[in-house]
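ok so for the tutorial part 2 we go from a plain amino acid sequence to predicted structure tokens. step 1 is just haveing the sequence, like this:
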Amino acid sequence: MAERQITYLTDALIITCIVQASQADNVVKAAQNVGAQGATVTYARGTGVRERMGLMGVAIDEQKEMVRIIVSEEQADRVFEAMYLAGELDKPGMGIMFMNKLDRIATYIPEEVLSGAEKPKGKAPAKKRKTATRRPAAKTKKAKK
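step 2 — the prediction. this is what the tokens look like for a chain of 145 residues:
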């Protein structure tokens, strides 16, 4: 049996955008148009701000959609801005978004993509980045019956 490896990706962030129901598609399309690869959309219900915003005469639906997108550091600002504008977060009560640094990501990456990432293209970058490392997967013991 071939030795299994885990490829860890670093230098990545996760963008979380919580918007009004039916706005997630616009946010995802905007992110993909500037280079994001994919997104996870979940449904949620909001509380708290609704009561305060009602005082200002703005009706806020409690049904929300939450969009999460993992991006590289290079893409982060561009994708964040596109999502913000598409979700109309510059208007009262439309939602909120934030970005967090990820320590490590693990998923399947085709061998040809990994070998292409390990080969330097042209000049070496001024700042050396750790983007992918491979480690043997932890071995598991079979339970005795």
